[in-house]
């Protein structure tokens, strides 16, 4: 048999602390679980917004470049080589520019716009190719990944770019 007591306590730092205590019978031991709720959080403080564009852009650019190289080596496709290495290189460049700007506690909207344009172009081109051929690999996969990245970049533009941690973090 368990008895449970819930209490909400607001601390002096503006955080709500929920204390849940449970008494176990017959051991007579107590479990106390602290769950913290920050009452002052707004939309900009959520974890998703703290994801920086270069964290995704650099791996995305590497995947595109390696995919173009693999397409060339397997099929001899110069279009795959040019498209993959071209967009991969642009994405890597934009990711590195964004990272360097972030290190200086600045936003690089040029890099963010370049990333968005590359991702949107890949979504459009590979989406059309998928609609024509119905082949998942590589057109469907690249179109899907690029559509997700385009959405992420548009979201980053709408929320003001990368956000910097405060001095206390």
TrEMBL record:
Its main location: membrane. It holds the Pfam family Tmemb_14. GO terms for cellular component: chloroplast inner membrane. The chain crosses the membrane at residues 54-73, 79-97, 109-130, 136-155. Keywords: Membrane, Transmembrane, Transmembrane helix. GO terms for molecular function: fatty acid transmembrane transporter activity. It is found in: Membrane. Belongs to the TMEM14 family. PANTHER family: PROTEIN FATTY ACID EXPORT 5-RELATED (PTHR12668:SF5), TRANSMEMBRANE PROTEIN 14, 15 (PTHR12668). This is Uncharacterized protein. It comes from Protea cynaroides.
């Amino acid at each position: 048999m368990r008895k449970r007591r819930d209490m909400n306590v607001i601390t002096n730092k503006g955080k709500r602390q929920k204390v849940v205590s449970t008494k176990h019978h017959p051991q007579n031991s107590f479990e106390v679980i602290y769950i913290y709720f920050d009452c002052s959080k707004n939309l900009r403080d959520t974890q998703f917004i703290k994801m920086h564009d270069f964290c995704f852009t650099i791996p995305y650019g590497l995947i595109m470049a390696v995919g173009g190289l693999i397409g060339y080596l397997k099929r001899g496709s110069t279009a795959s080589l040019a498209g993959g290495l071209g967009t991969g290189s642009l994405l890597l460049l934009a990711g590195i520019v964004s990272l360097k700007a972030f290190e200086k506690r600045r936003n690089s909207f040029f890099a963010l716009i370049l990333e968005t344009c590359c991702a949107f172009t890949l979504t459009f081109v590979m989406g059309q190719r998928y609609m024509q051929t119905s082949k998942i690999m590589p057109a469907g996969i690249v179109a899907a990944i690029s559509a997700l990245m385009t959405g992420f970049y548009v979201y980053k533009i709408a929320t003001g770019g990368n956000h910097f941690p405060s001095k206390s973090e």
